Amino acid sequence: MTLASFDFLSSVAKVILCGDFHAHHGMSGSVYTNCSGRSLVEALDVHDLVVLNTTTPTHLSFTGRNAWSLLDLVLVSSSCASLCTSTVTCEFLGSDHSVVLTAVQASTTAEDLGVPKWNFGKADWRKLRAACDHTLGSFSISLDYAYCLFETSVREAALKAFLSPRGHSKSQFHGGISSLTLPSKTKSMPLTK
To answer: Final residue of a domain: which of 77, 106, 135?
Structure first.
């Protein structure tokens, strides 16, 4: 993991990131620091993030030292950190990592989330196909990154092709592809090449 791994955050206003970052750093009580740990600490500063769970270890290593470490982290934008809590449980669910529960004490509406209002009746299907063809031409990258690129590309193409005039602007929309439901019939304009 490098600082560039967090570049996608520059286009997101508020974020909650959870995961096993394999980041060892003195900040999390580790006795040594690795590259991922240095990158993570730098990303916290550059992207104004806060680590919610900083004290309770989340991983038990059964190889060699049988030691606990804090690898599973919950990172949030500092602007919403006061609304979030994180708890490390005693549950392992068959893994060597503890379950980490995170709660957000906030209420949101569809408008807050930037969920667009699609107008399929006035969709410009040629524009959608052209936009998809332009960005989805070929994938010679990792599957995870390809999926992320695909999801972003289709979302951006959909925003261009059939966002209702009453819909939200692109800068307000930070939802995933799950917010987009394409119609079952695409007027003979398939999304595939």
So the answer is: 106
